[in-house]
Design brief:
alpha+beta, 25% helix, 19 strands, 8-stranded mixed β-sheet, 327 residues, 27% strand, 2-oxoglutarate-dependent dioxygenase activity, 4-stranded antiparallel β-sheet, Double-stranded beta-helix, 2 domains, single chain, Pyoverdine biosynthesis regulatory protein-TauD/TfdA family protein, 9 helices
Length: 327
């Protein structure tokens, strides 16, 4: 694959498909940003086919270089609006990866698939790899779609999904952080514009509901992809003891997050376990190296996080907002 380029280009894991495609620097000291003009045609050639590209062996001078590299693809970097996890904004359009405790795993998901709008592109920059673990497993969303049992796929497509979120109260991200404002009217305006039902509860906290897609059609390739976070938002994603403890102190409607069918009826735990089984079978994992940069088409490839030990720093950029539903 490398006959048209000075870079070594091949699937990272031989015999396991093309995700991710590895683009290896020819020698030490090649700056990723300075090589952009040569790398952009490779992205144009491979990204839509394989879903993700790993740039390895390049010199990255820091977060600002990474920001400029991601922005050079021609779309303004997006703010992390209506986010579902805690992150820190470290530069314009650059955020830390999800700040969950190191021992926790984050299941496979497409970024912001729990909404009606999402980024088409997402980049990860490995500033400091973990001592152990800390991988960002990925998976082909087209393959997940194909492997989901037809009866489940048809049920999800017909009913859609309703995501319910309760913010703050020490249990989840505060609404002020999620919406980047402490102005209630600004929150209500955002929700109206994005087809989100919002209600202020008696304790002053916020509950939102939004009905979203279960699958999606890629705007360029026209491939159908599995595109939701039902398995992640559903209460069954919690360890049993945590689930039981939470339900002892809050009603189900006040759980930090949960998901139902679009008509409000419950999703069966066993069905979600089947979905998780498919995701596990589709998972591709590899260790991060320092200065690795991975670019994913966010609809074609899902990503996750493995538990880790030691110091780990991974930052993220997103661009090219898209929606099938909203004008």
């Amino acid at each position: 694959m490398s006959e048209l380029s000075r870079f070594d280009i091949h699937p990272l894991q031989a015999g396991k498909g093309d995700l991710p495609m590895l683009v290896q620097a020819p020698e030490p000291g090649v700056n990723l940003l300075e090589a952009f003009a040569e790398l952009k045609p490779l992205v144009d050639r491979y990204l839509l086919d394989c879903g993700g590209i790993l740039f390895r062996g390049f010199q990255v001078a820091g977060i600002e270089d990474f920001r400029e590299f991601a922005a050079a693809f021609g779309h303004p970097l997006l703010r992390y609006e209506f986010g579902s996890t805690p992150r820190t904004n470290v530069a314009s359009g650059i955020y830390t990866s999800t700040e969950y405790p190191a021992h926790q795993a984050i299941p496979l998901h497409n970024e912001q698939a729990y909404t009606l709008e999402w980024p088409l592109k997402i980049w990860f920059y490995s500033v400091i790899p973990a001592e152990t673990g800390g991988e960002t497993p990925i998976a082909d969303s087209r393959e997940i779609y194909r492997r989901i049992p037809l009866r489940i796929r048809e049920r999800f497509i017909e009913k859609k999904l309703m995501y319910v979120r309760n913010y703050g109260n020490g249990l989840d991200v505060a609404w002020e952080q999620v919406f980047n404002t402490d102005d209630r009217q600004a929150v209500e305006s955002y929700c109206r514009a994005h087809a989100i039902q919002c209600d202020w509860k008696d304790d002053g906290e916020l509950r939102t509901r939004q009905i979203c897609q279960a699958v999606a059609c890629h705007p360029v390739t026209k491939d159908m992809v599995w595109f939701n976070q039902a398995h992640l938002f559903h209460v069954s994603n919690l360890p049993w003891e945590v689930r039981e403890s939470l339900l002892e102190v809050v009603d189900e409607e006040d759980l930090p997050r949960n998901v139902y069918y679009g008509d409000g009826s419950p999703i069966e735990d066993g069905l979600l376990d089947e979905i998780r089984g498919v995701l596990n079978k589709c998972t591709i994992s590899f260790p991060w190296l320092q200065d690795d940069v991975m670019m994913l088409d966010n609809m074609l490839a899902a990503h996750a996080r493995s538990p880790f030990t030691g110091k780990r720093k991974l930052v993220v950029a997103m661009a090219e907002g898209y929606s099938e539903e909203l004008p």
